[in-house]
Amino acid sequence: MSKPSFVYVTYIVTTADKLFNALIDPEVTRRYWANHRNLSDWHVGSAWRHEDYDDANEVDIEGTVLENDPPRRLVVSWASPGEAGDPAKCSRVSFDLEPLDKSVRLTVTHDDLEPDSERLRGITFGWPAVLSSLKTFIETGDVQPNLWAAADPAATELSHSEVT
Fold first, then answer.
1. Which of 40, 89, 115, 130 has a beta carbon 3.0–4.6 Å from 83's, enabling a disulfide?
2. How far apart are CA 159 and CA 150, in angstroms?
3. Residue 43's closest CA among 25, 65, 73, 76?
């Protein structure tokens, strides 16, 4: 049985360079991702962490940089804290950027997910909220409230802990 994937596509009025930077710059990620930052040196094989901006000890997701081809593609493994070393516990997120005129098509593919898992449920509500917030921030400079809580109040905790 194959593992499910979640794919989300959005179009953002920006350049591929600016969008790619928004995915990896901790000062930018904290703006659209509910005061959380993505932190790494972004070299292939390096660790990365998604952590609370105000308390670096509060890590929600961790993993390894699997591919980094700026500004076209970034791929990371994705696991709960302490599980990044266990391949059976890791999923994978790919960010593919394709320039189109004055916009960039961003395709986020989260795969190797366990069927009927809390992670699958969390990312189903979380990714659209995070990526909508990213789009708004890039295009307007404004930030949105915690959209994943509004999208599915029952999944608030899952969406925050599994997507952020």
1. 89
2. 11
3. 65
pLDDT classification of 121: cutoffs 50, 70, 90: confident
The answer to whether the beta carbons of residues 149 and 159 sit under 8 Å apart is yes
Do 141 and 102 form a contact (C-beta atoms < 8 A)? no
Compute the radius of gyration of the chain from its Cα atoms.
15
Q: d(Cα 47, Cα 69) in Å, to the nearest integer? A: 16
Which tens digits make up the pLDDT trace of 47-81?
A: 999 999 999 999 999 999 999 999 999 999 999 99
Q: Which amino acid would we find at residue 97? A: L
Helix (H, G, I), strand (E, B) or coil at 46: coil
Amino acid at 77: S
Average pLDDT over residues 144-158: 54
Contact 129, 136 (CB under 8 A): no
Phi, psi of 52 (to 5 degrees): -65, 135
CA-to-CA distance for 75 and 65, rounded, in angstroms?
A: 6
Name the residue among 117, 101, 119, 124 with its Cα closest to residue 13: 101
DSSP labels, 94-129: EEEEEEETTEEEEEEEEESPPTT-HHHHHHHHHHHH
Residue 106, amino acid: L
